[in-house]
Amino acid sequence: MDEAERFYKRMKLIITVDTERDNEWKRPDSTSLENIKFLQRFQDLCQKYGFKPTYLLTYEVASDPQSVKILKAYQEKLQAEIGAHLHPWTSPPFEQERSWEDKVHRFPHELSDKELRDKMAVLTQTIIDNFGIRPKSFRAGRWGFDARVARELIRQNYIVDCSVTPKISWQKTKGDPQGQGGPDYRFFRAQPYFVSPQDINEVGHSALLEVPMTILFTGLFKKENNFLHNIILRWPESFVKKVVNRLFFRLKWLRIFPNSKPSDFKRIYKAAKKNSLPVLEFMIHSSELMPGGSPYAKDEEQVDKIYHNLEAMLAYFKKQGVKGTTLSEFYYDFK
Ligand SMILES: [Zn+2]
């Protein structure tokens, strides 16, 4: 067995948690952080199966003493990694009127050079001050990432980004009313890669590793870059496309949605194996773990359902020999 083979033999799992205020989807007027108090159950479950979450913190969480206390305890015991998550609309300094920013939710890649630099610097320094470590991992709010954001991350000593959602286009999602919408990641690779600072869809020699969100075709054509994938990815959204996808393609995110089933995780694992992916990347918002904290879990029963799926997923991956890692641990492994 050569080195590459040995590497792929042991698939890794990265659990990312976008750690942010309650009910971000409702565009709340106030910054309530009740959901952070609900994280213990999640942390305990990950530890039970030997997995180690990466909490990606927005400014409001990184600057809140009570939230810091909770998360710092995990980080100090080396049971979690702390990274950064930029929501420009809650992250100072505010060049535009703060209430305007909170209303429109600009993507990070829509900020001016100065806004991007300053917001990233304040977020990073807040984490350094309150956690005593420099964050190394990053995810852009609303997946709003491009080459300019990548260059700024490199400048501010980040080593790993996880903002790419392969096969998904956010172009119809508006940020700045004057802007072009979100990024189009439809033809991005599912494998981790060092990004080119000129074009984030190109492999390059920068210091920044991209570990994309795990989104795979789990149906009949599991192998990446099948010519039929190109056709369905270019096909405009419609009812017929939905039916064709459900029957043949089965595009799945490594997420838990209200209609997720334990068998979805098996399908994703099989598709990842077929493509020799060295890593799976799961994501959840911290607020999804609190009853009423997100549209995904309105009450306790729905939170319990999330935990039911989560436990089924972790138990299954563990049984397959998948090993837990964090974003920056994976970087050092991959390098
Ligand atoms: Zn977010």
Question: Which key features would you list for this structure?
Answer:
alpha/beta, globular, 12 helices, 335 residues, single chain, nine-stranded mixed sheet, 11 strands
In short:
The protein has 335 residues and is α/β, with parallel strands linked by helices. The chain contains twelve helices and eleven strands. The strands form two sheets. Strands 1, 2, 3, 4, 5, 6, 7, 10 and 11 form a nine-stranded mixed sheet that branches.
CATH superfamily: Glycoside hydrolase/deacetylase
- Let me know the number of strands: 11
Find the structural class using helix and strand composition: alpha/beta
Helix content: 25-40%
Radius of gyration, taken over Cα atoms and rounded to an integer in Å: 19 Å
Give the integer mean of the pLDDT values: 93
Instruction: Write down the domain tally.
Output: 1
State the end-to-end distance: 19 Å
- Shape estimate: globular
Structure description:
With 335 residues, the chain is an alpha/beta fold. The chain has one domain (3-217, 253-269, 276-334): Glycoside hydrolase/deacetylase (TIM Barrel), CATH 3.20.20.370. 38% of the residues lie in helices and 13% in strands. The strands form two sheets. Strands 1, 2, 3, 4, 5, 6, 7, 10 and 11 form a nine-stranded mixed beta sheet that branches. Helix 10 packs parallel to helix 11. It is globular. The mean pLDDT is 93. Bound molecules: zinc ion. Residues 18, 20, 85, 87, 141 line the site of zinc ion.
